[in-house]
Amino acid sequence: MGNIKSILGDNIRALRTGKGWTQVYLAECLEITSPFLAQIESGKRGMSLELIEAVAGLFDVPIASLFLEQAAGQPGASGGIRELELQAVEKQLQEIVSESITRAFDRLR
């Protein structure tokens, strides 16, 4: 498992670049300096809870998703956090459908 600051920084960088935003633009949106954002993205600096909440809100992602480690070569590594979220939702939907089908067959017996 990686350093939590590095994971957070990597995920913020992935979200930022996924939108085509510069560090300067994101820093302005968050009301921080671009050098501070660069240190966050490189895992050298941590963030306040308020700033983490602002990042999650700005990118419209759950706060917890900012802390998901993504290993190279695993699902979601190239597609970023949103792909991981979609995979989790897909798995939940498959489980719900499977349970519903099982209950329906049980009623027919």
Task: Name some characteristics of this structure.
109 residues, 5 helices
Q: What can you tell me about this protein's structure?
A:
- This protein is mainly α and 109 residues long.
- It has helices spanning 4-18, 23-30, 34-41, 49-59, 81-108.
- The longest helix is centred in the last third of the chain and has 28 residues, at 81-108.
Quickly count the helices: 5
Output the structural class.
Answer: mainly alpha
What would the principal axes of the Cα set say about the shape?
A: elongated
Q: What fraction of the residues are assigned to beta strands by DSSP? A: under 5%
Q: Helicity, in percent?
A: 55-70%
Provide the low-confidence segments as ranges: 72-78
Distance between termini?
48 Å
Count all strands and give the number: 0
Q: Strand-and-helix sequence, N→C? A: HHHHH
The whole-angstrom Rg is 18 Å
